[in-house]
């Protein structure tokens, strides 16, 4: 499966963005989907995950209550709605797909990765 992330940009603290990740190549519902992020000089970290149907979601504690992951299986797209953004949310955001997994927060269990989209939050 090929993944294309988009929707990043520059936003002021307290603002909102919606990231999108379009999938192509194989049946989208085969995959649990996740969002990760990587800030300069830091490890790539888990942000949010969703199962094949959208009925189960996980969030990192740092984004819980502010970010919402969702998916549209008819359009092969997963979203990350980010509200109340903080400067510490600044990072490159990556979407990823895990085949044969119900849902996971673990980076190594994701098989396919998008190219990343930059999110910059100014104070």
Which overall shape is indicated by the principal axes computed on the Cα atoms? globular
Beta-strand proportion: over 45%
Structural class category: mainly beta
Oligomer: single chain
Report on the structure:
The protein is an all-beta fold. The chain contains no helices and eleven strands. The strands form two sheets. Strands 2, 4, 5, 6, 9, 10 and 11 form a seven-stranded mixed beta sheet that branches. The radius of gyration is 13 Å and the shape is globular.
Short description:
The protein has 123 residues and is mainly beta. Helices cover 0% and strands 51% of the residues.
Which descriptors would you attach to this protein?
mainly beta; 51% strand; seven-stranded mixed sheet; four-stranded antiparallel sheet; 123 residues
